[in-house]
Each structure stands twice: as C-alpha cells, then as structure tokens.
C-alpha cells in the first residue's frame, strides 16, 4: 500500500524552547520504471525519486511527456509489482532506446544539451487560454492550491492540474517533484480518455522551467500558469512552440509569454 506522508518525531524550536513533536513528512522514495525491450523482456529504464501515490499514472504521463510513447496507451498496459520497493511496469515497448538514468525530485532529466524538443505536431487552432484574463488564471491557481491536501498537511509537495475547455479544474496531482506531479496529471488525463490537449491549461504550484514546457510541447498543452516564475529556457522553448506562459501569478498581476509583441527592438534584454 502506498502512502504519501508519515509522521516522525522531530525537534520543534519555538520562542518558549525546544520540544520533541511529531511532524507530518512527505514521502520521497525510489520508484523503478520498467518497459519491454527488443526481446520482450522487462528492463528498468529509469529510477525516479517520487512520492509513492498515483504511480501508474506517473509512469503513463512520463512516457507520453518525454516522447517515449504515443498518446494511445491504456490503463491495462500497466502494472505495479508488490515488491520490497516500488516497481511500475509498462507492458509495451518505448519508441526509442532510453539509457537507464536516475531522475531526482529537482531534476527534469534533460537528455537534450541543445534544449530542442520535438513536439507532437503543428497546432491547428488557437487555444482559448492564449488570451485568458488575469482573474481566470489567478482563480484557477487558487483552486489548485485549495485542492492540495498533501501540501496542506506537510508543506513539502508540488501540485499540478489541468483547466479544461469548460474551465473545470481536473486531474490534480501532488508529488515531491514538480515534473512528477505534471506526469501524474497527464497520466490521469490520458486514462480519462483525453487524447488532445490543445484546449487545456496546465497549472503549477511552483516555478516553470524548461523541463515542464518540454513536457507541454510533447503533449500538446497550449498554456501553462504557475505561481512561481519561469526561466529563460522556458521562455525560449514556449516561444518556439507557441505555448502561452503565465508566471508569478498574483491577484494584481502576472507575467505573460505570448506573441511577437514582447520582442520589441526597443527593449534591451541584456540587463
């Protein structure tokens, strides 16, 4: 049985002195990801450090968002082994050979030193979230944070979710790692029957880096909104793939990466 957190005794420092109290700590553990090789035998292609909940969804989302499989995967192609440690299996082959690697909770595991990403294809329509108003974006992130019980009990997890075309918040996921939470959200959406992500906006409780934008590009997600800021590499990749970013979102403002209006020659980006 998986668990997302546990209580452990720790020292609690206060102005009144030191006490030993139980604190609820988010789980971080190794999760072994397996798939079939050319001989149709299971092999381990990655070990993730992750929070051990929604692990089948984690693997499914990871395969799609990293470009290892198509969107056409099914829940019955995955199993979890009841072992001494967490093992999740995909009973299919990957689109490319993946060198075994360790993915930490702070790592996007970038295997692309040139930071290029092959997207799923050209988008044929303009996303409704490209021109989303500030109150819509802020209210969506507020709903996300209100739907994160693991963070509320531990303060140690990241969260993600999707806003669908009808403005519904769906597929909220939490994990010690930002990218793991996103993979879980994508996996849940795929298992729910979503095959096109053009009219969805990905929500992040933390920052938005290159790794998250890369996952969005490979999946077809058209917009990302984050409570934290975005990085320079995230901006560049978002512009290359026509992904709209809303960053450092607050009730009174947010930064946006959108179209060519940002590229005015009168603005010096060197400072």
Indicate the proportion of strand residues: 25-35%
Low-confidence stretches: none
Radius of gyration from the alpha-carbon trace, in angstroms: 19 Å
Query: What structural category do the secondary elements indicate?
Result: alpha/beta
Number of discrete helical segments = 6
- Specify the helix fraction band: 10-25%
Total E-strand runs: 13
Under the CATH scheme, which class of the domain at 134-263? Alpha Beta
N- and C-termini, Cα separation:
51 Å
Would you write up a description of this structure?
This protein is α/β, with parallel strands linked by helices and 271 residues long. The chain has a domain at 134-263: Cytidine Deaminase, domain 2, CATH 3.40.140.10. 23% of the residues lie in helices and 32% in strands. It contains six helices and 13 strands. It has helices at 55-65, 134-146, 149-154, 178-191, 210-219, 232-240, and strands spanning 5-14, 17-26, 29-36, 42-50, 78-82, 86-93, 101-103, 158-163, 169-175, 201-204, 223-226, 244-250, 253-257. The strands form three sheets. Strands 9-8-10-11-12-13 form a six-stranded mixed β-sheet, with helices on both faces. Strand 1 and strand 2 (17-26) form a beta hairpin. Helix 1 crosses helix 4 (178-191), helix 4 runs parallel beside helix 5 and helix 5 runs parallel beside helix 6. The longest helix has 14 residues, at 178-191. The protein starts with a strand and ends in a 14-residue tail after the last strand.
């Amino acid at each position: 049985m998986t668990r997302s957190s546990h209580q452990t005794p720790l020292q609690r420092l206060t102005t009144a002195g030191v006490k030993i109290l139980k604190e609820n700590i988010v789980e971080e553990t190794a999760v072994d990801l397996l798939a079939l090789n050319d001989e149709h035998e299971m092999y381990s292609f990655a070990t993730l450090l992750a929070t051990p909940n929604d692990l089948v969804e984690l693997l499914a989302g990871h395969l799609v968002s990293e470009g290892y499989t198509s969107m056409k995967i099914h829940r019955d192609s995955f199993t979890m082994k009841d072992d001494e440690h967490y093992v999740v299996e995909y009973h299919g082959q990957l689109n490319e050979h993946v060198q075994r690697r360790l993915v930490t909770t702070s790592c996007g595991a970038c295997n692309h030193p040139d930071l290029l990403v092959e997207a799923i294809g050209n988008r044929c329509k303009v996303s409704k979230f490209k021109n989303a108003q500030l109150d819509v974006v802020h209210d969506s992130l507020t709903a996300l944070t209100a739907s994160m019980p693991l963070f509320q009990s531990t303060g140690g997890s990241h969260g993600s979710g999707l806003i669908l075309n009808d403005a519904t918040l769906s597929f909220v996921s939490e994990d010690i790692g930002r990218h793991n939470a996103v993979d879980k959200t994508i996996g849940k959406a795929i298992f729910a029957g979503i095959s096109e992500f053009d009219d969805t906006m990905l929500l992040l409780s933390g920052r938005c880096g290159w790794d998250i934008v890369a996952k969005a590009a490979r999946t077809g997600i058209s917009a990302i909104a984050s409570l934290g800021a975005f990085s320079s590499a995230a901006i560049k990749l978002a512009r290359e793939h026509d992904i709209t970013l809303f960053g450092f979102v607050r009730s009174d403002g947010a930064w946006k990466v959108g179209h060519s209006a940002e590229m005015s020659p009168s603005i010096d980006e060197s400072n």
